[in-house]
Amino acid sequence: MASYRIRQYREQDYEAVRSLFARGILEHAPAGYRHFLRSAWAQLGLLILFIGARAAAGCWVLGLGAVAVALVASWVQVRSLSTTYVQQALSTDLLDISSSYLRAPNSCFWVAEAKGTVVGMVAVTPPEDPAERGAALELKRMSVSKDYRGQGISKALCGEVLRFARARGFGAVVLSTSMVQVAAQQLYEGQGFKKVGASSPSLLAAILCFQIYHYRCDLPSRTAAP
C-alpha cells in the first residue's frame, strides 16, 4: 500500500487537479449508459423502434439497424451529460481554484499526494442551496485516481471536510453524487451521510433516467461530551 499525505492545494497542482477531476467524472459514463439500457423505458422504446422500423421497411435487418443507430445516439447523449458537467466545472470554480476555495470564506481545497503526484482531491464551500447557507457546508469535487483507490484516501479526504466544518461551528455537511457512483455512495454512508433526496439535473437527464442523489451528514456539537 502506497503512503500518501493530505495537504492544502497549491498553485502547482492546478493542471493535475483539473485532469484528475475530468478523468474521474468521465469514467462513470459507461456505468450511466448501462443504467439507461437497464431501464424499462429504454428497453420498451428500443422494442417499439425495432417493430416500427421492421414494419415500415419490411425487413428485420433494417429494424436492427435502427436500433443500432438509437443505441449509438443514446451513448452520445449519456456521455454528453458527463462532458457538459466537466466543462462547466473547469470553466467555473476549477478555473481559478485559489480564488474559489482558498481565498473565499468557509472554503478550502485539499489534495492527496503520493510519490510527489496528486492522486486525490476534495473541496468544501458554502452550499448552493440558500436554505442550507449558514447552517451547513458542501463537500465538492471529490475524486481519487483509479490506481490509488481502496487505500483509505477518499475516507481521509472526507474526514478533512467534516473536521473543517465542525471546527467552524457548522451543524452539517451536504453533498451530491450521481446514482451510478455506487462506491462513492457507500463511502459517504459509511462516514455518516444519509440520502435526503434525488433530482434530475436536466430534461435530458430525466429522459435518460439519470438522477443526482443528495446527502447530508449532521455533525455533533463541539461542546457535546462523549
TrEMBL record:
Gene3D superfamilies according to UniProt: 3.40.630.30
GO MF entries: N-acetyltransferase activity
Domain N-acetyltransferase stretches: 62-220
Alphabetical list of InterPro entries matching this protein: Acyl_CoA_acyltransferase, GNAT_dom, NAT_camello-type
Domain of life: Eukaryota
Residue spans crossing the bilayer: 44-76
Cross-referenced Pfam families: Acetyltransf_1
Keyword terms, alphabetized: Membrane, Transferase, Transmembrane, Transmembrane helix
Protein name in UniProt: NAT8 acetyltransferase
